[in-house]
């Protein structure tokens, strides 16, 4: 039986976690949480075809996610791969995405007989049908290799993993904590200088504590913070409920006789329990500040004596509080699995990095007061994920922005891709968009003056050595990349020069959008006219400096203005996708492509020619562009096709990297019937709702948002739309119209309709008006 079918059996028989708990133990009912399938997106045949998601247990936005370890994770390898047959421990991981590195992990390894510390020796076979996988509880039976079985169970709170092992009573059992392991970077087996760490056993407290300096992305840290960030450490405090019969410290596979502590590489420690012990509970507090703080986190989140069931119940309740906010009618069991798993995926990143009211900053290597978040994949998440968070986790938006402002204060710049600290991954300074969108949508509770200062710096201050640094993808030994190329021709002529900077054409289009976001921010904050107008003019002009009239496509240009060739200067996309990447000025783009009819034809050519690549973000908004050019029915058709082809309820159910929630945010918005094509505008473009009805309880609002679209599962076309009884003729609706609840009533049809075709005029007029704002 595959893991998926085992999961479905559990669902259909209504067992879930309940059957595994003492009968007296009640778990909160949640249809939504029962439909989460954490294996969705775990893998394809190659890391590239993988969503990179792991079946981890943790509450929303948790600092540490706990998962059965099947692999030594690294950039391109996740700690859990569903095809594996052995489990090598249970890992508290901070790896936020498959193409990013791990930081400060800890691994808990159960075993019997002689202690096996090395990854390759300690794997225990398991069979799929012994697994129960849910967001709050995981269990598996491990084969000890000599006829015994270990039942391993796992749950977690944000900063504490809770594990319970039931050992065969006739064998001598142990639990090992791994502090440091070999890393693929600069790994010389005979002389390991990184990562180093420490370990200590305290049998009186029944604790094993330790730390390591592993931060796999250290190699791409901007140079000005590299020194400070090199002090980063992950700490842990593991406390057992069972006295130790024996214990020891192990280095590189051998016990260091008589030692309670150790320092260095390849370090672990174990506690052995008396034969006959049976159940052992271990709670593992994790910290980025210190071992003491890890201990405080442990005591604060899971007190002594708390049962694993109670931990699982609390974490399940936390998920239910979010996921139960949407009820669907007309969705199949499979649809619900895809939908609620997507919802689960969108509420994981960025993740909490503060502990007890303080946080460690790798930017300045200090501990500060306040909240902090990390795991910001902003080139991906500014598109739809952030809009989703604004709707479903608005209580966190002010501190997520404040955290970015702290990064600015401590490191000099807003984040691009923060994984503990900045990594310079991808292009553009889309934190500008996150801030602008929040302000445009009326989010309060952060320092808008500081936000403006930080974002305006992005638009006006080039990176260090801009003139002679290429800022290639993952280039080492360079400083903050931010708007590489800003100092050259971009400011004067409008494009980033391809012969000077990498990914120049993608940068040009991204910077133009970021300028648009800043223009909206400046206007909302009442900044001086000349600043507002300069940003707006740059945003509107820059994209079209790349438009090659001879080919009808965007094309990178060199410093001297010559064309660099159709395939030059793109990142994670090509000329097809990027020519549609002017989300803030589709009317002008349509005009450049010869008017509406010819623009619609170019969209057809894009899709019919197989150029749309939904596995990567530059394609995500493209199906929605039809609806801005009078061909809404084609948006409705394409969105349905894309959802079907790129999402399903299997481990390969995400065609591309989840990218910290963006793949799923696209699905969720699309399933509800609208998508934020131009996030900083505060507008959504209407698509085609997938189900008969969605009832949404937005946090902070008593009136639900009810989306009715009777017959939608078999009728993809929209014949009409009304909001609170008022007819809507345009395919563009605003955040304001939905953000406080209301009734969105779609009339669906099996045949293409002209709705939204001829009535776009008001949108276009409104658009032109908006450009004149000041
Ligand atoms: C999972 O493991 C299989 C078999 O080793 C491998 O082919 C595949 O690439 C892995 N998937 C991921 C996402 O790492
Ligand atoms: C997978 O992606 C990596 C990084 O983008 C790339 O170097 C590699 O060629 C890709 N491999 C396949 C099989 O597509
Ligand atoms: C670890 O042990 C192996 C032999 O088991 C040895 O070859 C290697 O040099 C040792 N590494 C370190 C860092 O001590
Ligand atoms: C181990 O590597 C470090 C760093 O490269 C070097 O300084 C040291 O001399 C090496 N030690 C041995 C024993 O080779
Ligand atoms: C490290 O952080 C301190 C502040 O704690 C700052 O003064 C210093 O410039 C930083 N050093 C580097 C190399 O960034
Ligand atoms: C393309 O054509 C437009 C309108 O005819 C013109 O304004 C623009 O300068 C041309 N672009 C380039 C790069 O030649
Ligand atoms: C313009 O720049 C490109 C790339 O650096 C170069 O190949 C080309 O010769 C230059 N053209 C002129 C007219 O200078
Ligand atoms: C596109 O169509 C809209 C109305 O549907 C119209 O207002 C607009 O002028 C057209 N634009 C172009 C460039 O043809």
Separation, N- and C-terminal Cα atoms: 64 Å
Query: What is the structural class?
Result: alpha+beta
| Quaternary state of the chains | single chain
Tell me the strand percentage band: 15-25%
Cofactors, ions, other ligands: 2-acetamido-2-deoxy-beta-D-glucopyranose
> Could you report the average pLDDT, rounded to the nearest whole number?
93
What's the β-strand tally? 37
Shape: globular
Low-confidence stretches: 1-24
Helix fraction? Answer: 25-40%
CATH topology of one domain: Beta-galactosidase, Chain A, domain 5
- Main beta sheet, described? 11 strands, antiparallel
> What is the name of the CATH architecture of one domain?
Distorted Sandwich
CATH class of one domain: Mainly Beta
Overall radius of gyration: 26 Å
Q: How many alpha or pi helices?
A: 22
What tags apply to this protein structure?
disordered N terminus; binds 2-acetamido-2-deoxy-beta-D-glucopyranose; 774 residues; 22 helices; 37 strands
Can you give a write-up of this model?
- GO terms for molecular function: carbohydrate binding; peptide-N4-(N-acetyl-beta-glucosaminyl)asparagine amidase activity.
- It comes from Favolaschia claudopus.
- Keywords: Hydrolase, Signal.
- It holds the Pfam family Glyco_hydro_92.
- The protein has 774 residues and is an alpha+beta fold.
- It has 22 helices and 37 strands.
- A hairpin with a 5-residue loop joins β7 and β8.
- The strands form eight sheets. Strands 2, 5, 6, 7, 8, 9, 11, 12, 13, 16 and 18 form an eleven-stranded antiparallel β-sheet that branches. A seven-stranded antiparallel β-sheet has the order 1-3-4-10-17-14-15, with no helix packed on it.
- It has a domain of 321 residues: Distorted Sandwich (Beta-galactosidase, Chain A, domain 5).
- The relative contact order is 0.09.
- The N terminus is likely disordered.
- It starts with a helix and ends with a helix.
- One 2-acetamido-2-deoxy-beta-D-glucopyranose binds next to loops.
């Amino acid at each position: 039986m595959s893991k998926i079918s085992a999961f479905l059996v559990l669902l259909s028989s209504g067992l879930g976690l309940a059957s595994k708990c003492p009968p007296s133990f009640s778990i909160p009912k949640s249809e939504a949480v029962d439909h989460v399938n954490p294996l969705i997106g775990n893998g394809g045949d190659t890391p590239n075809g993988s969503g990179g998601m792991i079946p981890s247990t943790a509450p929303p936005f948790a600092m540490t996610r706990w998962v059965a370890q099947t692999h030594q994770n690294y950039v391109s390898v996740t700690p859990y791969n569903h095809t594996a047959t052995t489990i090598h421990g249970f890992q508290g991981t901070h790896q936020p995405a498959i193409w990013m590195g791990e930081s400060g992990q800890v691994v808990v390894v159960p075993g019997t007989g002689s202690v096996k510390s090395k990854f390759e020796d300690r794997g225990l076979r398991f069979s799929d049908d012994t697994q129960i996988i849910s967001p709050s509880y995981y269990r598996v039976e491990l084969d000890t290799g000599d006829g015994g079985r270990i039942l391993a169970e796992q749950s977690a709170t944000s900063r504490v993993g809770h594990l319970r092992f039931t050992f065969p009573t006739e064998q001598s059992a142990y639990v090992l904590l791994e502090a440091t392991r070999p890393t693929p970077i600069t790994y010389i087996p005979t002389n390991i200088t990184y990562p180093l760490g420490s370990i200590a056993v305290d049998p009186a407290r029944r604790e094993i504590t330790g730390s390591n300096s592993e931060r796999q992305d250290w190699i791409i840290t901007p140079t000005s913070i590299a020194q400070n960030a090199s002090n980063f450490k992950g700490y842990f405090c593991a406390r057992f409920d069972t006295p130790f019969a024996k214990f020891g410290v192990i280095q590189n596979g051998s016990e260091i006789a008589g030692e309670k502590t150790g320092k260095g590489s390849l370090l672990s420690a174990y506690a052995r329990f008396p034969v006959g012990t049976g159940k052992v509970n271990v709670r593992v507090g994790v910290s980025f500040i210190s071992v003491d703080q890890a201990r405080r986190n442990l005591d604060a989140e899971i007190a002594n004596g708390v049962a694993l069931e109670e931990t699982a119940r609390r974490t399940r309740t936390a998920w239910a509080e979010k996921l139960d906010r949407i009820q669907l009618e007309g969705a199949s069991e499979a649809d619900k699995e895809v939908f609620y798993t997507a919802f689960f995926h969108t509420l994981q990143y960025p993740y909490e990095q503060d502990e007890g009211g303080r946080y460690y900053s790798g930017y300045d290597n200090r501990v500060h007061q306040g909240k902090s978040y990390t795991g910001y994949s902003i080139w991906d998440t500014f598109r739809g994920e952030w809009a989703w968070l604004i709707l479903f986790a608005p209580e966190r938006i002010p501190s997520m922005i404040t955290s970015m402002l702290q990064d600015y204060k401590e490191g000099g710049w807003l984040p691009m891709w923060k994984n503990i600290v900045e990594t310079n991954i991808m292009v553009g300074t889309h934190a500008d968009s996150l801030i602008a969108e929040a302000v445009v949508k009326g989010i309060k509770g952060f320092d808008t003056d500081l936000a403006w200062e930080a974002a305006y710096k992005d638009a006006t201050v080039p990176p260090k050595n801009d003139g002679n640094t290429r800022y290639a993808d993952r280039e080492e030994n360079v400083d903050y990349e931010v708007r590489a190329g800003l100092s050259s021709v971009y400011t004067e002529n409008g494009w980033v020069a391809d012969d000077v900077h990498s990914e120049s054409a993608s940068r040009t289009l991204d910077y133009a959008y970021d300028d648009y976001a800043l223009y909206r921010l400046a206007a909302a904050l009442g900044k001086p006219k000349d600043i507002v107008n300069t940003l707006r003019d740059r945003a509107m002009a820059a994209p079209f400096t790349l438009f090659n009239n001879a080919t009808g496509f965007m094309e990178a240009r060199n410093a001297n203005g010559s064309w660099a060739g159709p395939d030059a200067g793109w990142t994670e996309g090509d000329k097809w996708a990027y020519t549609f990447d002017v989300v803030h000025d589709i009317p002008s783009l349509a005009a450049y492509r010869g008017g509406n009819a010819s623009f619609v034809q170019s969209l057809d050519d894009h899709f019919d020619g197989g150029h749309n690549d939904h596995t990567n973000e530059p394609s995500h908004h493209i199906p929605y562009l039809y609806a801005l050019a009078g061909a809404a029915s084609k948006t409705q058709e394409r969105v349905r096709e894309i959802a079907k082809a790129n999402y399903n309820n299997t481990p390969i159910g995400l065609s591309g990297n989840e990218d910290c929630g963006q793949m799923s945010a696209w699905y969720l918005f699309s399933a509800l019937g609208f998508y934020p094509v131009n996030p900083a505008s505060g507008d959504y473009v209407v698509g085609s709702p997938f189900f008969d009805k969605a009832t949404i309880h937005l946090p902070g609002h008593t009136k639900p948002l009810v989306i009715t679209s009777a017959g939608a599962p078999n009728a993809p076309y929209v014949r009409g739309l009304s909001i609170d009884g008022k007819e809507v003729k345009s395919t563009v609706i605003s955040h304001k119209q939905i953000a406080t609840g209301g009734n969105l009533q779609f009339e669906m049809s099996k045949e293409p309709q002209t709705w939204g075709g001829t009535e776009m005029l008001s949108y276009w007029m409104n658009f032109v008006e908006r450009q004149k704002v000041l």
